[in-house]
Every structure is written in C-alpha cells, then in structure tokens.
Specification:
The protein has helices at 16-22, 32-48, 65-75, 90-101, 119-129, 149-158, 206-209, 221-229, 239-254, 257-278, 305-314, 341-356, and strands spanning 5-6, 56-61, 83-87, 106-110, 133-137, 139-140, 145-146, 162-166, 182-188, 200-205, 294-298, 317-318, 320-321, 330-334. By secondary structure, it is of the alpha/beta class. A 7-stranded mixed sheet has the order 2-10-9-8-5-3-4, sandwiched between helices. A 3-stranded antiparallel sheet has the order 11-14-13, with no helix packed on it. Strands 1-12 form a two-stranded parallel sheet. The chain is globular, with a radius of gyration of 20 Å. It starts with a strand and ends with a helix. Bound molecules: pyridoxal-5'-phosphate. Pyridoxal-5'-phosphate is lined by residues 9-10, 64-66, 69, 91, 137, 139, 141, 166, 168-169, 188. Residues 9-10, 64-66, 69, 91, 137, 139, 141, 166, 168-169, 188 line the site of pyridoxal-5'-phosphate.
Length: 357
C-alpha cells in the first residue's frame, strides 16, 4: 500500500522519529528499563500543561482513548455522588453509556450536536440533579466544536461540582486551564501528541484518587496510580506504544509544546478551510468556535461521501465521515499529525479534480 496521509482524527500520520521508536528493543515490563520509560512519560505528561506532581497524578493505561475516559468515569464519582454528563456529540453520549454500564447515579444535559453548552442550562442542571461531578468533552470531535471549558469551569466552581474532562482530541494542542474545579482529564497518545495507538492516560488530582471507587478491574484508576507511583504496573503494558509516546512527547516539547502545535494546526486548518470555501464548500461550526484540530465541512451538492472519500484515498489522503445523524451531510478533516502546508496544497488540488469530474 502506498503512503497515506491520515486526515482522520487519530491515529495520526507519524513522524519518522516516532515510527522508528516503535521498533525499540524487546523489554520485560517488570525490569527497571521499562519503569524508566514509564517515569519519563508520566513526568512529561505533567509538563505539557505545567501541572505539579504535588497535586496531580499522571496515570497511563494501555488501551485506546476510551479506556482512559472510562477509567476516569468509572473510578471518580463515589457511591453517594451524582454525575451530570454534558452531551453535544457522540463522545458526550459515550460517557453517559459508561455511567449506565458502571451503575453510576447520573443525569444528562443533552444539547443538539454541534450546539454550544449554555452556562445557565448547565447551572440549572447541576442544581436540579444535585450533581457532585460534571463530565464534559473539551473538543467534540463529532462536529469540531471546541466547548468553552472556562465557562463550564466557572459554573462548576460556583456550584461546587468536580469537573471530569474528556480531552482525548485536544490534549497537547488546545489551551486547558487546570483550575480548582478540574478533578481529572483523560486523553490519548495518538491524537494531538502524535504517538501511536495503544497508550492513553488520565491526569487526576491526588485528592480525588484517595477517594476513588473500584467498579472495574482493568480500569481501576487508583490501582494504576498506586502501582505507577511506585515504579510498578498492574498489567502488561503496550510497550511499543510507550516507546512511541516517549519519543512523541520529546518531539512535542522540543517543537514548542501545545501553543506551537495549536498554531501549526490552526494554520493548516485555515489553509484547508479557506481553500474549500473558495471551492464553495462550507464549514459546519463557526470558525471562532471550532477547534484547531478538526473541521467539519458540508458535502458539496451532488457529491456523496463515498465518492469523495474514495477519490481522495486513491490520491493518498484519508478523510473521515460524519457520524450518526451527520453521516449524509458532512465530512471531516483533521490536521493533526506529521503534516505540512504542502500536504494541504496537494489535498486542495485533489478537490479540484473531484469537483471538475
Ligand atoms: C477519539 C476520541 C475518543 C475515543 O478514542 P478511541 O481512541 O477511539 O477510544 C474519545 N473522545 C474524543 C473526544 C475523541 O475524539
């Protein structure tokens, strides 16, 4: 198969350095060499947003992004707590499913896909349900909307609710303010950090981990935290994914951290957005409210997603379909990964072929 440039929201096109790291040496995960890597990853994860080890525990889990989100949701609300899940896309709805599966007392604040979270509606819902915890998706990858974390945080703080954040598709590229109401943030290696799939993580406050609940064996967040703090691991980790994350975090830091990555994504996303607008293709979410990571576009009249996808794939680009109710209306383009302006120029050129055909 010839080289494909991935414009789907993870896994991403890897840098040569991260790809080479995947083929690191065979290693036993009970040996000090592994714990050196695990320690380095944990400390680098804290450094991405300058979190102090005094307040925050970095917990790495071998699994996809969902494993980290589920470990967070399944572990942090206690038996007497109530979780309010804010839904404005697939990933918010998935957290509600997690609460159902794990028997957590919960309520939903359901908002139309793509619509913003209203602070007043959030405040009312917290009060109506006596919610102790609020779960929210930072960047709703379903639509490309970047939810306003600062506004959500302010409401949670005013109502004494703890905030649990799915930052799977924003960690490493968008601003995240770890304010006092933020209790845990879950994310993954293979989106904005440019690692490989198979490693995910949660940054959780020590104070929350001390009161955590065990509702699952593999996804017991406090269990991982305790083992990893003592240079241990409960299960066999995905060692190649750890190698890749270690290399990816170093590249992320060396390239200027999350502000530089945001700038880079934003420039590419604007290049694509402007180029598609000039070809009559509109964005779904107003730009000021969209993430730097991914944009949703309305399918041009008379062009099916299948035709668009297949033609682009033939030319070396993988785009992403809309989910659920948006499947027939939109396509999505992410600018995460080892991509540059030349890649986007080539992409726009292929759009010309498709529109002309
Ligand atoms: C990608 C994504 C997930 C799930 O990640 P998987 O790695 O597929 O499990 C969860 N939440 C958001 C916001 C995502 O973009």
């Amino acid at each position: 198969m010839s080289r494909l440039r991935l414009l789907n929201p993870g896994p991403v096109t890897l840098s040569p350095g991260v790809r080479a790291a995947l083929a690191g040496p065979d290693l036993c995960h009970r040996e000090p060499e592994f714990f050196d890597i695990q320690d380095r990853i944990r400390s680098q994860l804290l450094s991405v947003y300058d979190n102090s080890a005094e307040d925050w525990a970095p917990v790495v889990i071998s699994g996809s992004g969902t494993s980290a989100v589920e470990a967070m949701i399944a572990s942090l609300p206690g038996a007497d707590d109530t979780l309010l899940v804010v839904e404005n896309g697939v990933y918010g709805e998935r957290m509600t499913r997690m609460a159902e599966v794990h028997g957590i007392a919960h309520a939903r604040l359901h908002i139309a896909w793509g619509a913003p979270i209203g602070p007043d509606a959030l405040a009312e819902a917290i009060q109506a349900h006596n919610a102790t915890h609020v779960a929210v998706v930072h960047h709703e990858t379903t639509t490309g909307r970047l939810n306003d974390l600062n506004a959500v945080h302010a409401v949670c703080q005013a109502h004494d609710a703890q905030l649990l954040i799915d930052a799977v598709s924003s960690f490493g590229a968008e601003a995240i303010d770890f304010g006092p109401a933020v209790t845990a943030v879950a994310a993954t290696a293979n989106k904005c950090l440019h690692g490989a799939p198979g490693a995910a993580f949660v940054l959780a406050r020590h104070t929350a981990l001390e009161q955590a609940t065990t509702r699952a064996l593999y996804l017991d967040l406090a269990g991982y935290a305790a083992k990893q703090a003592a240079r241990g691991t409960p299960f066999t980790p995905g060692i190649p994914a750890f190698y890749a994350l270690d290399a990816a975090l170093e590249e992320h830091r060396a390239a200027g951290g999350w502000p530089a990555r945001r700038e880079h994504y934003q420039t590419l996303a604007d290049q694509v957005g402007d180029g598609l607008a000039a070809r009559g293709i509109d964005e779904l979410v107003p730009r000021a409210q969209a993430s730097c990571v991914l944009r949703s576009y309305r399918l041009p009249a008379g062009v099916s997603y299948r035709r668009l996808h297949d033609h682009l794939k033939q030319a070396g680009f993988v785009i992403y379909a809309g989910q659920g109710q948006l499947a027939d209306d939109i396509f999505r383009i992410s600018t995460m990964g080892n991509l540059d302006a030349t890649d986007m120029d080539e992409l726009l050129h292929v759009f010309d072929e498709i529109i002309a055909s």
